[in-house]
Amino acid sequence: MIKILMKVSSMRLLAENLSARRGEDLIFTDISFDLGAGESLVLTGRNGSGKSTLLRVVAGLLHAETGRVSWISESSESGMRAAEACHYLGHRNAMKAELTVFENLGFWKDFLGDAEDGKGISPGEAAESVGLGGIIHLPFGYLSAGQQRRMAFAKLLVAYRPVWILDEPTAALDVSAEAVFTELIKAHLAAGGILLAATHQPLGLENARELRMAGFAGVTEERW
Ligand SMILES: Nc1ncnc2c1ncn2[C@@H]1O[C@H](COP(=O)(O)OP(=O)(O)OP(=O)(O)O)[C@@H](O)[C@H]1O
Fold it and tell me: Which atom of ligand 1 is nearest to the CA of 43?
């Protein structure tokens, strides 16, 4: 049973005419999308096509060459900052190997705090939610690659953010972990959350839109 404490969010994520450069190369141009409560957009495309770059631009971690990202929330007239509105889960898990799982998740809970319209769950409950409640006392570095990825996902649950930005969330995961992640994402969307994800494997979401990145300024969009 997955328990996530949050009210139905009314967030909107608007990206307008985004372009980004890595080094000398323009990786994509004029990408726009508009995601409302409960909506998801999945970026696909070959290695190097710019998926991670787009996610990092939206999360405010990379500078956009052109365009802008707006985080529109009913609870904040002036809009929100990326750090207040989204969780970003990149290729790395952002956990300290020598601290226990409990200490890592506790750190993130205290450091991030909750966005206004939701409430995160405890480190113990979050570990339970990803199927690893029994190993919360172990140093993070002792965990297998798949267990580490599950615990990185649990970080999304300890502090509430309406938008989840996930880069290859299911890399190194077994089939049961994929199913757990899909259920957690569906629960997030059902509560009015938003998902922006890059993946090479389908995430099992029925109504996700797809943005196929072609790399070096090419891009196409279609609905799955
Ligand atoms: N710091 C950098 N300087 C120059 N080029 C870079 C830099 N970082 C990334 N790139 C290039 O930008 C392009 C897009 O990379 P990106 O990581 O966004 O691709 P991706 O679609 O996420 O790939 P993958 O599926 O392998 O994760 C690639 O061609 C990459 O080599």
Answer: 21
Residue 56 Cα: closest atom of ligand 1: 18
| Rounded distance between C-alpha atoms, residue 60 and residue 63, angstroms | 7
Best of 18, 19, 21, 22 to mutate for ligand 1, by most ligand atoms within 8 A of CB?
22
Q: Which atom of ligand 1 is nearest to the CA of 49?
A: 21
What separation in Å is there between the alpha carbon of 195 and the centre of ligand 1?
Answer: 21
* Prediction ipTM score: 0.94
Tokens representing 143 are 């965990």
> Where along the chain do its domains lie?
12-223
Q: Determine the pLDDT at residue 218.
A: 57
For 147, the token pair is 């267990």
pLDDT at residue 220 in the model: 56
Position 221 pLDDT exceeds 80:
no
Name 138's Cβ contacts closer than 8 Å, sequence gap at least 6: 100, 101
Q: pLDDT tens digits, residue range 171-202?
A: 878 888 888 999 999 999 999 999 999 988 87
CATH class of 12-223: alpha beta
Taking the centre of ligand 1 as the mean of its atom positions, its distance from the CA of residue 65, in whole angstroms, is: 15
